[in-house]
UniProtKB/TrEMBL annotation:
<dbReference type="InterPro" id="IPR008146">
    <property type="entry name" value="Gln_synth_cat_dom"/>
</dbReference>
<keyword id="KW-0436">Ligase</keyword>
<dbReference type="Pfam" id="PF00120">
    <property type="entry name" value="Gln-synt_C"/>
</dbReference>
<dbReference type="InterPro" id="IPR014746">
    <property type="entry name" value="Gln_synth/guanido_kin_cat_dom"/>
</dbReference>
<dbReference type="GO" id="GO:0006542">
    <property type="term" value="P:glutamine biosynthetic process"/>
</dbReference>
<comment type="similarity">
    <text>Belongs to the glutamine synthetase family.</text>
</comment>
<dbReference type="GO" id="GO:0004356">
    <property type="term" value="F:glutamine synthetase activity"/>
</dbReference>
<feature type="domain" description="GS catalytic">
    <location>
        <begin position="136"/>
        <end position="227"/>
    </location>
</feature>
<dbReference type="InterPro" id="IPR036651">
    <property type="entry name" value="Gln_synt_N_sf"/>
</dbReference>
<protein>
    <recommendedName>
        <fullName>Glutamine synthetase</fullName>
    </recommendedName>
</protein>
């Protein structure tokens, strides 16, 4: 929930305890966030350590670089890797708690990128309030809230685009293949059953797919999610 002063209030922490009691096989907790480069980032904590953080009223601290590109190969980071950038906290949004698809021993939670020390860190508190002025997740929630003030609803979809090549079993060399944007022959060559299997897998974990097709780039394919 967004408050008028820009403070975010998180509830539902008591649901985590209930979740763990039902999912006794869980051993790890993924703290996930999406940065400004649309990269999914994660810190994987042992369940024991995550529960300790909750009991102590603490949150995992990370460098603010993790809202953008931080890889060592990039010029900025490579030239000045020790440059200070400040610290933020991964604040779990417990409403997003779920089992990691395909890995029942792991739970996943999306996080806000909180600034400063949360004002209500106690585990016993019903709600947690904090500032998150640079958090992409908070910005999206704020935009949705403002649209609702005008009686507008939001529907968001996205595309998954990737490349795939077929190799020869005997030599390992890449096979030459027909490829055209939205071409049928390109699908029929070998990708049609692959894309059908990918679609079935995504649908099975609650990601509805509208369509798939060949993209314009060589060996590129695209799946479009339902918004």
């Amino acid at each position: 929930m967004n408050l008028p002063d820009g403070t975010l209030t998180i509830t539902g922490r008591e649901g985590f305890t209930t979740f763990i009691k039902k999912q006794l096989q869980v051993r790890f907790v993924h703290l996930q966030w999406v940065d400004y480069t649309n990269t999914m980032r994660v810190r994987v904590l042992t369940l024991r350590h995550f529960q300790n953080l909750l009991q102590l009223g603490q949150h995992l601290a990370v460098c603010r670089h993790y809202l953008s590109l931080i890889d060592i190969a990039l010029p900025f980071t490579d030239r000045d890797p020790e440059r200070p950038s400040g610290q933020c906290y991964l604040i779990p949004d417990f409403d997003s708690l779920r089992l990691h698809p395909g890995h029942d021993e792991q739970a996943a939670i999306f996080c806000y990128f909180g600034q400063g020390i949360p004002s209500e860190p106690s585990l016993s508190a019903i709600s947690l309030s904090f500032k998150a002025p640079t958090c992409p997740r908070r910005a999206l929630g704020q935009a949705i809230s403002r649209l609702k003030q005008f009686g507008l609803d939001s529907r968001v979809g996205f595309e998954l685009e990737f490349g795939c090549k077929q190799t020869r079993c005997d030599t390992g060399q890449v096979k030459e293949q027909v490829h055209q944007s939205s071409g049928l022959r390109a699908l029929e060559s070998f990708m049609l059953p692959v894309l059908c299997s990918i679609t079935d897998a995504l649908e099975s974990v609650g990601v509805p797919i509208e369509q798939f097709h060949c993209e314009g780039s060589e060996n590129a394919y695209e799946l479009v999610t339902d918004c």
